[in-house]
Amino acid sequence: MKIKSQKDFWSGLMFMAFGIAFAWGATNYTIGEGARMGPGYFPLMLGILLTIIGLFVTFEALVVETEDGEPIGKFAWKPLFFIIGSNLIFGILLAGLPKIGIPAMGLIVGIYALTFVAALAGEEFKAKEVAILATVLAVGSYLAFIVLLKLQFPVWPSFITG
To answer: What are the residue boundaries of the DUF1468 domain, all occurrences included (predicted)?
Structure first.
């Protein structure tokens, strides 16, 4: 059978791999049932759903004809580096790394850093737009996690709050 869309074929396989991994990992926890869900219920259902989506996308890549076969292009290293890096920076700034002397900078500083570093992954960088986005994300995160959910983690840098 000929692959008619390389992008869809490999995307479908990726969905299936992650779905199977989630479902398999969920079996280490109590699954429960619909009315009394255990900690493994959601990852199991997510894994099953991802696997089904992967099967559908892979099947479609083998059946639906595309004009040029949709070949896979070159690997996008720059976005990958900046997106993963922004998440690592956010985690480090949120809680700090006491073992190497980096203090906790809190949620607000972490979100600003995450937004600015992640914005470098794109084709163009507009500081004003990124600053507006970071402010909206910081305010929204503060309202959602601190005010509404009452989660307990640092909001501001530890040297400011004491």
So the answer is: 10-154
Spatial CB neighbours of 14, under 8 Å, sequence gap ≥ 6: 54
Report d(CA 105, CA 153) in Å as an integer.
11
Tell which residue, 76, 82, 81, 143, has the closest CA to residue 108. Answer: 143
- Provide the 8-state DSSP code for 100: G
51-108 pLDDT, tens digit each:
999 999 999 999 888 777 777 878 889 999 999 999 999 999 998 898 998 888 999 9
pLDDT digits (tens, 9 = 90+) for 117-129: 999 999 999 999 9
CA–CA dist 162, 156 (Å, integer): 10
Q: Domain coordinates of the chain in residue numbers?
A: 6-63, 77-161
Q: Choose among 131, 96, 129: nearest CA to 113.
A: 131
The total of other beta-carbon atoms located within 10 Å of residue 59's CB is 13
